[in-house]
């Protein structure tokens, strides 16, 4: 199992988990849920008490990944398998990312 904090404007909004079977779970932190001023991180991952589950990486996070030759270079330099979407996400979306969301791996 691998986990990453999902930060919205550098504040922890939730957690993304990749389970050993390759499936994914996303859930908002309790304090994020209880604060009405805190927004959804995306239109497809609205604030709700139930966790989100998917066999594949959620489209919102998948669309944050590099593509084409950029993906190949990042994977080669960081020794990441081309199909390791979680590994690619935590490598590329931890610091300099477009938008308000950052993804930081939990060690």
Structure commentary:
With 107 residues, this protein is α+β, with helices and mostly antiparallel strands. It has one domain. Helices cover 26% and strands 27% of the residues. It contains 4 helices and 5 strands, in the order E-E-E-H-E-H-H-H-E. It has helices at residues 30-34, 59-62, 68-78, 85-92; strands spanning 2-8, 11-18, 24-28, 52-54, 101-106. The protein has a 5-stranded antiparallel β-sheet with strand order 4-3-2-1-5. A hairpin with a 5-residue loop joins strand 2 (11-18) and strand 3 (24-28). It is globular. The relative contact order is 0.21. The model has no long low-confidence stretch (mean pLDDT 94).
Task: List unreliable stretches of 5+ residues.
Answer: none
Give the strand tally: 5
The number of helical runs is: 4
What share of the residues does DSSP label as strand, in percent? 25-35%
State the shape.
globular
Report how far apart the termini are.
11 Å
Whole-angstrom Rg:
14 Å
- The total number of structural domains is 1
Mean pLDDT level: 94
What is the element string, with H for helices and E for strands?
Answer: EEEHEHHHE
């Amino acid at each position: 199992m691998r986990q990453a904090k999902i930060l919205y404007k550098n504040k922890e909004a939730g957690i993304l988990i990749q389970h050993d079977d390759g499936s994914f779970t996303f859930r908002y932190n309790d304090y994020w849920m209880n604060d009405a001023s805190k927004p959804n991180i995306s239109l497809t991952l609205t604030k709700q008490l139930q966790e989100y589950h998917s066999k594949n990486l959620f489209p919102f996070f998948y669309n944050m990944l590099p593509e084409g030759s950029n993906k190949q270079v990042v994977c080669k330099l960081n020794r990441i398998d081309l199909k390791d979407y979680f590994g690619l996400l935590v490598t590329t979306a931890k610091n300099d990312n477009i938008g308000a969301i950052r993804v930081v791996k939990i060690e």
